[in-house]
Amino acid sequence: MRTVDTPCRIELFRDVVQHLMQTPTYRQSFWASTWTLIDRQMTITLRNKKFLRARALMVVLGGLIYGTTFFQVDLANVQVTLGIVYQTAIFLSVGQASEIPAFVAAREIYYKQRRANFYRTSSFVIAYLAAAAPVIIGESIVFGSLVYWMCGFVAEIGPFVVFLLGMMLSSMALSSSFVVLSALSANLDVAQPVSTLSNVLFSVFAGFVVPMGQIPGYFSWLYWVNPVAWCLRAVIVSQYRSSSFDVCIDSGENYCERFNSTLGEYLLSQYDVPSKEEWVWGGMAYLVLAILVFVAAGTHFLEHKRFDQARREQRLATRGSVAHAVRYWGDPRPSVASTSESKSSNAKRSPKKKERKLHLQLEQQGSNALAAAEAWW
């Protein structure tokens, strides 16, 4: 028992580290690992048939309800038109919050497999969002098509593509933002209230409930960072800058002479929406950038902010092993030099400071050795 209870010599740790340095941390490359995780996550998603059926039913019924409620509306009524686009974006984007419980549950598996260096954290996050992309794309196409054509939006291919693309990208952006919130939350009881608050912010500062010109200056940044606001702006500009509304005369009214703008530009000004066409593809570019930022943030927080009980237990075990090594091997600090200068220098040091420094050094050595052994296993 004494042999078993004896701590490992530092030479053994050095040998392990020396040999492990020649072994790659991950067995697969980044892309191979990512594709493996995508395949696994897609399998998990497809097996959850009840969830897929419920989402499909919700999307179809929701699209029919929206389409029949606002059937063939007058697009000259900018308030109603903007409201339909806003409700469509909110329905599809905020609906991604249903993925939070699944991600929180998958996070525990991630912690275990990441400790064993099965894959990189970035591969896990990318694979999770890539597996969710087909569901998001399908929902956007079905729901968006029903709403677009039943509500009587501009019958042109360009605005229709912008409409669908904006819904897809905004849904992906909010889905990735919920990954970040889940990574920062200790458990599901924390993640759900935080996601509710984020949904409120996404909804209120999208530019419809409160127009941009009426948002207080100290809250204006929430409007400009909101993915839903960029989606709403891009879609509505594509509608009112189309050939159907980019005219001067409508119903006997010459908007170019009276308001120095076309019909579409005048209608957009009613809700403080900028009318330049650059906002359309600028909005799409911002949504792509937002997705990348959320993916990077989710990767960072998953890697460095862990709510892992096993990880904490390992750290406590490491500290216990270090303390046991100190008791068994004795104080490894070098002896005090015989010169008077060294004696006077060491005498000035506080015993508590030296003890604290020794403890930190030993704990760091033990943590490094544990990390090396953990990477090998």
Automatic annotation (TrEMBL):
Domain ABC-2 type transporter transmembrane residues, every copy: 34-240
Chain intervals with Polar residues compositional bias: 336-348
Entry membrane topology: Multi-pass membrane protein
Main location: membrane
Pfam entry (one): ABC2_membrane
GO cellular component, one term: membrane
Annotated Basic residues bias: 349-359
InterPro entries to which the protein is assigned, alphabetical: ABC2_TM
Parts of the chain that traverse the membrane: 52-72, 84-104, 125-148, 160-184, 196-215, 279-302
Location of region: Disordered: 333-377
Subcellular location: Membrane
Annotated GO MF terms: ABC-type transporter activity
Keyword line: Membrane, Transmembrane, Transmembrane helix, Transport
Protein name per Swiss-Prot or TrEMBL: ABC-2 type transporter transmembrane domain-containing protein
